[in-house]
Amino acid sequence: MTIKKVPHLAHWGAFTAVVEDGKLLRCEPFFADRDPSPMLNSIPELVYSDRRIRQPMVRRSWLASREKSDRTLRGREDFVAVDWETALDLVAEENRRVRDRYGPSAIFNGSYGWSSAGRVNHARTLIRRFYFTGGGGIDQLGNYSWGAAQFFLPYVIGTYMPLTGRVTDWPGVVEHCDIFIAFGGLALKNSQVASGGAGQHSLKPALLELAAKGTPVVNISPMRDDCPEFVNAEWIPIRPNTDVALMLALGFEIERLNAVDTAFLHSHCVGYPQLRSYLLGESDGTPKTPRWASDITGIPALRIEQLAKQLIGKRSFITCSYSVQRAHRGEQPYWMMIALSSMLGQPGLPGAGFSFGHGSMNSVGNPRVEGPAPLMSTGVNPIADQAIPVARISDMLLHPGEPYTFQGQTLTYPDIHLIHWAGGNPFHHHQQLNRLVEGWQRPDTVIVQDIVWTPAAQMADIVLPVTTTLERNDIGGSSRDRFVLAMHQAIDPQHQARNDFDIFADLAERLGYRDTFTEKRNEAQWIEHLYQQCAVAHHQKGIHFPEFKTFWDEGYVEIPQGEKPFVFMEAFRADPVANPIKTASGKIELFSETIASYQLPDFAPHPEWQPPQEWLGAGISQRFPLHMISIQPSDRLHSQMDAVPSVQANKTAGHETLWMHPQDAAARGIASGEVIDVSNDRGRMLAGVRLTDGVSPGVVLISTGAWFDPGFGKAWQPYDRAGNPNVLTLDIGTSSLTQGPNAMSCLVEIKKAKDCKNA
User: Which GO cellular component terms are attached (predicted)?
Assistant: First the structure.
């Protein structure tokens, strides 16, 4: 018996892989992690899953007819096994055919960034690098996490970087904050993950310190359990998608009570007179009073008045989770939060101001000397001007040649003939999946490379099996975490799986540009190269990295916290003339002349309330009276790990669990543990129901990540068996300005499923 222990890393934390006689036994948490993720326990189940793709596969009729095959058979037809040389030849030939006949704008190089914590075998980086080097391809802009905010915040504060976790450090918040307001909560489960992995999970220790100090925390959310119980947060239940109405009313009250910091607004902001006119109703005839907001939000007017008074004269820290902006008109609460904090004169003060993403991702507010994580370059896309917003995939596939609006410009969707998807599962992230299925049938060819038979792989023409991170060497780390981490290969590749880097290198060789793609480096040389790049950048900050061999042997480099706590906007607050922010005015923009110049019908040049297309105040709520919120799961990262036994064991009656208020369940004759039918005009799904009083009446909760299952390889049914909420979500942009993903504006009706087999 031989026991081997090697350092490794996943998006949900660093760990030691324990291997016995070549078999992965378990994953032991990293020594520095005070709150390790239980998701580490699922990793061996994934490695040895019976859902692994064992060898290259090609859809039967595509192999016979290529681009002339019946594309509606994707997901319904069987596959034929081929060897690697044949599979790579087919991919290269199809790549060449489409590029030569239609040009690079006919190729969609799809991926999503959570594919691997390792930076050398990071599929999203590699597929972009491969296609950019080869002449270009249609890329995606932004992400599903904070896509609306990414393209909106630069108009208001000059940057989107706070979304990545570069916000006021937690120690400063704990020391100086008098009141902490969390729109969308502070869910610990979300803080278990960080892109690129992490050596430490920071949210729980920080919240424990905040609670020990006794700082008041207010959780403004439809969900009570968005905040851990030990924080002792006050829960203010709010009707989903109405946060901006509450914020507007708070602004009205602060103005009414003459508590506005006029000096800060004059020196550091532009546009407050226009916003003030809107708050007071001078511009539209509707004062944004607490009573007005109460009718929209469901929060008593008196409680709104009290909350305004709690903020006045206090060092306040206000944060919005990412989920708040993943809704129709989701940019508005982010804008008004910034305005509200500015009215109180808080930005740039220690422990105060505004922030994003606490309770949405790990490492937000981590103390760390600023410096990059290891990162391979994608290179420059020769057709970068044709990239689409990340959430507009279905629109692109269904409406080639048609115009759309983005960032004040009118653009045109390309005509896609080839999809090559590596890393990630679009049939998890995307909205209105039945619409995506229709679009997915349009291109000539779909290529997917992945570890397991995800829904995307099952709907491909060519499928390439990829190694897990445990089956290869790599390097990882996050720009907000204090560790750069080695990822040693722990076991041999399973079945016929190959590394992403090697797959793309061999494809590049077939297409004549291997050396350009690889820069004549193999996997090991790239790992050392990325380490050295990272070391040089940190050396300029006075941080010494050891020699590569020492790092590789020890498994990590620790980066110090820094001598001075970071305060977001501190320099700007101290001297806005000497340290302007990168907006058009150099100041915080509460009214944007740039946005005004776009003359968008759905986007005013200042924060405003416009009803979302779907919310509990809409007319359609008469037919679909429940607002469905799709939350991140606690037992997996998005849809990763959904097929493993430990995750499947957490389901209810074999389906994803939907949480419902007892009052809503009783009205429908539904009992806890039963199978339910959840539907709207966009689709239907089965779920298992559980009851809780920790959700507002009229609101239901379900985790994302269940693998879309309309009956792959069988006669498809007009419903999803697994409980994937994106069968029901609405596939529209958050606005014509940002075209961000909209998942949170979704109304449904629920009934007891009469027959689970034929529901």
Answer: outer membrane-bounded periplasmic space
Cα gap 712→456, rounded to integer Å: 11
CATH number among 3.40.228.10, 1.10.3720.10, 3.90.180.10, 3.30.420.40, domain 156-369+581-598: 3.40.228.10
Report d(CA 144, CA 153) in Å as an integer: 16
| Beta strands 699-703; 675-680: pairing state | unpaired
The pTM assigned to this predicted structure is 0.96
Is the Cα torsion angle 592, 596, 598, 603 positive or negative in sign? Answer: positive
Residues belonging to the active site: 112, 114
What residues contact residue 516 under an 8 Å CB cut-off, 6+ apart? 133, 508
Amino acid, res. 248? L
What does the pLDDT look like over 8-64, one tens digit per residue? 999 999 999 999 999 999 999 999 999 999 999 999 999 999 999 999 999 999 999
Residue 623's SS3 state is: coil
Percent of the chain residues topping a pLDDT of 70: 99
pLDDT band at 358 (very low <50, low <70, confident <90, very high): confident
Q: Using CA atoms, how far apart are residues 114 and 483, in angstroms rounded to an integer?
A: 19
Q: Where are the domains of the chain?
A: 57-142+377-558, 156-369+581-598, 619-752
Cα distance from N-terminal residue to C-terminal residue, the chain: 51
Write the pLDDT tens digit of every residue in 509-538: 999 999 999 999 999 999 999 999 999 999
Round to whole Å and give the CA distance between 160 and 149: 7
Is 1.10.3720.10 the CATH classification of the domain at 619-752?
Answer: no
